[in-house]
Amino acid sequence: MENLNYSNHNKCSDFCCTKVENLSVTIGTNKILEDINLHFHCGELTSIIGPNGAGKSTLLKALLGEIKHTGKLTYVGTSSKGVTTPIIGYVPQYLNFDLSTPASVLDLFIACNSKAPVWLYSSKKYRNKVSESLSRVKAEYLIDRKLGALSGGELQRVLLALALDPMPNILLLDEPVSGIDQNGLELFYDILMDVKSKYDLSIILVSHDLDLVAKYADKVVLLKGTVLCSGTPKEVFTNKTTSKIFGLSWYDEDDSKNKGGKK
């Protein structure tokens, strides 16, 4: 049952609501998702949780238009123009590349934002712009670092900076901090909160880090082929269905806030 309730925003970006209506995905004879109905609003971080194989990554791919689906996706703007097409940023779980590559972070940005080979471009033309993009994720010092020398947390922040260039209306993140140490986790989420506050975009995050979801998310969706429950972290983590799937009995709203939760 879809029960996300949203208050009106005094400040709103170009796209105030992403509506997912009756979305289903079937691959071969296997139905991965069925009758997904959700609303995502700007200025909010919605976390998608669920067991392995629940269809979380499939939902993101459907939103990206990478896989076929039935149902309807509608992006509603704040102006009278009505339905329009948003800019969508995406951060994958990891990036596969040759660790021995001599390419730097700057080279990666140039390669992702140009049609010609990297060596045909002057790095001076892009350096200031790339440095500004990296500063959003507290990583400008990495601009000349070789990709193979980046830690897991540093690489994910670089990928986040890429996803924010240009600044999207909707940011999708597919388990972006998997395998990162605790300090890296906290830093990544703190950066997300800062970006959400400054740029008022919709953030949709797939995560298995339930403690951090409880601490930072505005809304949570429990997915297992379909939406089992949704709402605030308190509503979802105290729901009997969530407890049955994850064996949870740990959620305490006051304790979550004391951990430095909602910004």
What can you tell me about this protein's structure?
This is Metal ABC transporter ATP-binding protein. By secondary structure, this protein is of the alpha/beta class. The protein folds into two domains: 182 residues, Rossmann fold, CATH 3.40.50.300; 73 residues, no CATH class. Helix content is 32%, strand content 24%. Strands 5-6-7-3-8-9 form a six-stranded mixed beta sheet, sandwiched between helices. The longest helix has 18 residues. The radius of gyration is 19 Å and the shape is globular.
List the helices and strands and how they pair.
Elements: E1 15-27, E2 30-41, E3 45-49, H1 56-64, E4 70-77, E5 88-91, H2 105-112, H3 123-135, H4 152-163, E6 170-174, H5 182-199, E7 202-206, H6 210-216, E8 219-223, E9 227-231, H7 233-237, H8 240-246, H9 253-258
Parallel strand pairs: 3-7, 3-8, 5-6, 6-7
Antiparallel strand pairs: 1-2, 1-4, 8-9
Descriptive key words:
alpha/beta; transport; nucleotide-binding; 32% helix; ABC_transporter-like_CS; 9 strands; ATP-binding; ATP binding; 6-stranded mixed sheet; 263 residues; 3-stranded antiparallel sheet; Rossmann fold
Radius of gyration: 19 Å
Helical percent range?
25-40%
Major beta sheet, strand line-up:
5-6-7-3-8-9
CATH class of the largest domain: Alpha Beta
Low-confidence stretches: 1-12
Overall morphology: globular
